[in-house]
Amino acid sequence: MLLSNMTDSAAAGVPLSVDFSSPEDYFIFIFQILFATTTVLVAGTVVIGISATRALRLQNRFIFMLNTSICDTLVGFSVYYLGLFDVQEGYPSRNGTYNVLPSLLGVNILTFLFAQFDRYFAVCYPFVYSRFITRQVVIGINVYCWVYNATHLLARNLLPVSEAIQLYVFSTVFFQLIVLTKVVMTIKLYVVAKYQLEREPPGPERESKRESLKIIIFVVISFLVLWCPSFVNIAIKFFTGGGLTFRSEATNLFAILARFNAVCTPSVYMWGSPALREATVRTVWGRLCPQCSRRQCGSCSKAYPNEAPR
Hints:
0% strand, 78% helix
């Protein structure tokens, strides 16, 4: 069989994640391919849509969306390796990537946190925000998320194994604090937005703030739902020695749930922003279906004629 030949040919290098000895193996392999392809298509569409639309690139909130979508696209490509081959990241590692590919998810964690603070100051302190939080500052914050993640990853790979494990445990606790901060900020954003936006007069700026808050709240909620099982399992492993262990990344249900953020987040972006939907249809999908492009752009322009560059 073709799949048997693939397994035999891969044996010389990194073997496949399954040996196709049961129907479940076929399901896992096909699921990982579909999952990776869907992630790349959905997140990549958002990247192209924002990058090719100047009106979106000038808005701070779309810069955060662009950063997370770039990361999500890379996560999708990483699934082609982590999901299709026999890989085990962490300690101990098997055919791993020195935690480079899993660490991509850490960029999103920091970006979501800064995006929440960004929306909070945009709503609560609009005059201070417009004066100090410039486009250059937001770009610098997003670059910092990558630099911090790369520095942390480099330190873990250069330190001895015992110290690297201690740093890994510390980072897990640190991310738990970030998750707690996200929960507090989400509640605060909801309460503030409910009363603050009601005081503002109707207009494009108010609708822009309402839209951006709706997106960030839904994104953070989905992030917490999908990430918490993995965080809890990791914490149980390192603090009690228990927890669930999986044979590879392809069968790690918690890791799959965490990576599902890479599909969920850009989907929420397109659902919550008519301007982004219009941009993605015009720059990507509209070229495949011109009739759909005209219909979508017409409906978006009627429903959401202007967006304030916030």
